[in-house]
Amino acid sequence: MSAQKIRLKKTKDTASIGRLASHDAKQAFLGVKHAFTRPFYWKKKDFKTLGAITLGLFALSSIDDESSAFLIRQEPNVPNIFQEAGTRFGSPQVYFIANAGLYGFGLFTKNETIRKTSVLIISSSFTTGLIQSFSKTAFGRARPENGYKSTEFRFWSNEPEFHSFPSGHTVLSITMAHAIAKQFDNTWSKVGVYTLGSVAPISRLFAGAHWLTDIALGTALSIVVVDSVDKFLFNTKAYDYPVKKKNRISWKLNFTGNKIGVVGVF
């Protein structure tokens, strides 16, 4: 480790709480700015990814109605604790309280890894939250539980029953899960984090609050934004990242015959 890097780390460790909070707030703001302006700098591979996501959503939409009807029928057999946990964990109130606690712990203990993780979550969730809130109103897609078809839209609707696309619970839970999973090198630790993060999206399907494509778009949006902000923080050396990231999961859309899925490659 170079002398310059040692001095930088020492400065961070001995900095006041106020200076650390100011630094983190600046990085969170820059992370949000980067996420929203990044599309202006997209390259060919980025547009290919967008095309793959769009194509995947169209393919998945062909089974929206049937899958939703099947999952809603299974809801009476799902443990209440699972549904309750999914509803609460994906709610904005619980989400922000949890992250505030996480960041507060990292700040007052001056733990840079926890602070960095929390800044990544804050930047990403603010970005994805704004996008999904705008999209819900703009698309005005009906929720399954109201007896409508998946193709029923009322654009720019203020009615809650027409705020299905994409899933807000999915955006929040997957954003947090993906940001936290990035901090682990152990594959099984990552799997555990993603499993917990999937509780909210799955519970919303059983409850008839969302279609499969709502969940799929929320997941894709979260992963893309978190990866973008994480790369920005890494490239700007805002925090002390490992020299080489190992055992990261590469998420890809997989098409085989009449099936479509999201595959995580370890």
Question: How would you characterize this protein structure?
Answer:
The chain has 266 residues and is mainly α. It has helices at 3-14, 17-37, 44-61, 64-74, 80-89, 92-108, 112-139, 168-181, 187-197, 199-206, 212-235, and strands at 250-256, 259-265. A two-stranded antiparallel sheet has the order 1-2. This is Phosphatase PAP2 family protein. It comes from Flavivirga jejuensis. InterPro entries: PAP2/HPO, PAP2/HPO_sf.
Name the features.
single chain; 266 residues; mainly alpha; two-stranded antiparallel ribbon; 2 strands; 65% helix; 5% strand; disordered N terminus; PAP2/HPO; PAP2/HPO_sf
**In which range does the helix fraction lie?**
55-70%
Instruction: Give the class from helix and strand content and strand pairing.
Output: mainly alpha
Largest beta-sheet characterization? 2 strands, antiparallel
Distance between the termini: 28 Å
The proportion of residues in beta strands is 5-15%
Number of strand elements: 2
Our Rg estimate from Cα atoms comes to 20 Å
Number of helices: 11
**What is the domain total for the residues?**
1
Shape: globular
Order of helices and strands: HHHHHHHHHHHEE
Mean pLDDT: 87
Major sheet: arrangement of strands: 1-2
Q: pLDDT below 50 for ≥5 consecutive residues: which ranges?
A: 1-12
Pfam family, one: PAP2
Protein name: Phosphatase PAP2 family protein
Domain Phosphatidic acid phosphatase type 2/haloperoxidase: 121-226
Organism: Flavivirga jejuensis
